[in-house]
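User: Quick one: structure for sequence A, then sequence B.

Assistant: Sequence A:
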Amino acid sequence: MFSCCAGEFLSSVHDFWFLQDLEKQESEVVSRFVVEHALLQAEVDEFEGMLQNKTNMDIFRDMLDHSLDESKEKLNVLKKELASKQRTILQLHRQLDDIPVPAELLQYELCFSQLYTSIQRKLRQTRKHYDTFNALLEIKEIMLKETSLLNSISSQFQIAISSPVGRTKLVESMEKILNGIQQKLDKLQLVLEPEQKACRALKEKHRKALSDQRQCYSLLQAFEV
């Protein structure tokens, strides 16, 4: 019973304060309307006075002309700002047009990939030609040395074998030549072994690539069927 009465009392208090708040808001609205009405009435009275007085009418006309000029000036300024913004927008549109779309990017990527493949192929061919040239140049130098050596032996052979000392020197000279040739062969063998290893690796890679190509071709045929 007591709780019921307390609830009703709180509800009544809440309604009372709510009504007080509404009355306060109503009073504020009425006061604001009264002030605005007074201001508008004063403006109306001023305009009526200007219309009744010719001098005031001229002043009113001047005020209107001045207001119109200001409005035109503001309009021109706004037009200029609008034109400037439109130019900026057009520039941005041009910049956006210069940005490639995904399809164009894919096309560029394909072209660059093809160009890279072509450059790599040309580079391999150029390296191959340089290696061939260097090998031929080295063979030429070796053949020139051999020719010079054979000419030297041929010109001094008869003199060398005519005496025991000459024969001994000839044998020693030939042994030195053989040792030099053997050392040269050993160096070339050291260079040849990595090249042969790389060649075998490339052949194995090529074999796997051919196997993958045949498998891909078989899968494509099976898919088409």
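Sequence B:
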Amino acid sequence: MAYEYGALSRPLEEVFAALQEGLMREYRLDYLPAHRRSARRSRRLRRIRGWWRATGRLAEQAACVTQRTLPRIEQETGHAFRGPDGLARVLMAPPTKQLFSEILAGFPEDALPICANDLAMLGNFADDSHALALIGDVTLRLKVLPGGDVGAAGLAALCDRWGLHESRIGSGFRCSPDGEKLEQEKETLARAVLGLIYVEGGVDALRAVVPLLAYGRTG
């Protein structure tokens, strides 16, 4: 099967709701009392129930991004995001890729809880932060601070200021990194949000964030 990439067919909040509803529908269709189930059916029911719980946690975390993280960034930068889904894509943690891939592979196409394209795109959201981080980094260096130093400390501090790492969607699916790995993740997240601001608002919107980077360097 071939899939397209780009925007979801509907807002992320609605996609998560439909995904949960579809998973529960498939669970009920497969359900049999324990004494009548085969071991294979029991394993399948456990998988579907696990997917349902995991996507429920993702939906809750995405709602927190919309209600808390996004307004904080908008207030500090003066940039009004086009909607909550762009930031949610940036904050989708890598382990979610495996979750959506498993769901996509776990059903015949005509029995998928949501359309195949939406599941495939959800699985690719985890890659968006790296692409936008590159855009943010290059734009800062070439158009906003040419010849200047975009310090790692300032980026990590900006990530902390906005609570980006704690707001990652799917962050509970793995152990949190520490040390240098944690700092690298924070820098990538900050660059990715800056990249998103540039893509949506242009150079002037990104330039307005520079004082926050300076604040991070000086504490």
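The chain has nine helices and no strands. Residues 12-214 form one domain.

User: Thanks, that's what I needed.
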